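Q: Protein A?
A:
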Amino acid sequence: MMTVMIQDRPAVAHSPETLLAQLVDCMGNERFGPAFANYLHSLCGADHFAAFRLGRDELREVAACCVQPERTARDRVESYVNQGLWKHDPAMTEAQRRVDGATATIIHVDFSDHEYDDLRPRVYPHVRDRILLCGRGASGAFGLSVLRADPHTPFAHEGIEKLAQAAELLLAMLSKHADVCQSRPNVAQALTTLDEIESCIVATSALPRREAEVCARILYGLSSVGIALDLSVSEETVKTYRKRAYQRLVIGSERELLTWYLARWGRWSAERFQTAASKALH
């Protein structure tokens, strides 16, 4: 006999279970940040979060958001990463040291520590309390900074306990989100510098050096004349190298060259960072 059970109780819009379901559905897209912020708020009362992938002398943002997304302090997150302020963060230093442990670690930051005298006004001017969760996901090491803002009270003991209990789940979700995002090339990052483009082409193809240099400069946006000037060759020589490179790659246009490059850059970038992370942690 078949038994049919009907759920006649309406779902609560902001229940932890509903928020978790929404979070899973948002992995890999731009809605992940707000969904993760809402889930953390329901879990422990957090107002903001910033999540990072940890590597050797490198920190990469995975996601960052406020419960009210429009209030997300993007400038502070970017300064923390791009200006290397994280290297002066005692909690992040401790996280880097502990991240290779068998279990996740919870670090409760003490802002009264004199080591934060310089960092707090620059990165945490309106933060009342901060917890840093660190550990390993399936694809590497991650750090999750969870913040409680003024004028709210510090995190309650119960909230910290819930965060600790959910630590492995949170790290797994961050790892999965990062993997999905990494598998899709970020065009802006992929084409940021000529050195980046050229290094990727040289590392992932069998093109002769000059042909790789010409393709890199095409992707960077230089004209044939500009490439000729940059490489100190004639414009006809540039056209010859381009023709040979296209024949080797079995492509016929700049659009096809861009598609070919982005497919390789995504894998190359992920492997490069993962290698650096593995060296740092072993």
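Q: Protein B?
A:
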Amino acid sequence: MAQQPRTKPAPPATPESPPGKQNGQPTGPLAPPPAPTAVAPAEPSRRRHGRSPAILAILLVLLLATAAWWIGAGRPAPTQLLPWPWQEPAGPLVASGTLEADEILVGSEIAGRIVSLVQEGQPVQADQILAQLDDSLIQIQIRQANVAARQQLEVQLEHYRLRSPIDGVVMRVPMHVGEVVSPGQTVAAVADLSSLKLTAYVLERDLGQVRVGQPVAVTVDPFPDRTFPGVVTGINQRAEFTPRNVQTRSDRLNLVFGVRIRVENPEGLLKPGMPADATFLEP
């Protein structure tokens, strides 16, 4: 006889909640208000990260504005590196000195009394008489001598006339009319002022920038807007201290080399004794 399948018993019926309650909680007008839902605070790290781009943008704008102000005011940007005081830009070498004239000393070969004499600063030409010695005695001898003796005396007569060897200017006259000059004593000094001599003093560390034949531009205080051409003619082989009449006291304590320069002076504007600055040029 076939067996009937077993059926699962039905669960017991749950008693219905009384009116006004649901899940054991009162409902309706008497029910309490629902509890507020707590909101989790935002993470601090996220809040900081959100502000960083804005702060960086503001700082960048301020930095750019500051740089623009500096550049507009003619000042270097804050990021520009300024050179140290001793790192001056390289430029042409400049040295100082004093203009001088090449004087030719005119003296007497014999003793005699001066009866005429040129004045200091007087222009003279070559073979012009600078001083005349008293020749009255030899003139008498010439008149009394025969032909052969007269020729010899006329040669001696020329020693009583002191002549200029060049065209130039009388620079110094150490004698006076009426004085007796001795053999070899200087009566006058003559110089050609169309070209002058300048001895500029160069520090040892700068001597490599100077060479013989190098062109030079010379300036002097009386003519600040003019330059006078020159050329290096020689360099002293021995170092010396800067002369007292050149540069400052501290500069005079340096060892320097004298550089000889020939300066053209066709208009005669330059005078011996003038301080001058020499700028050494590249050929």
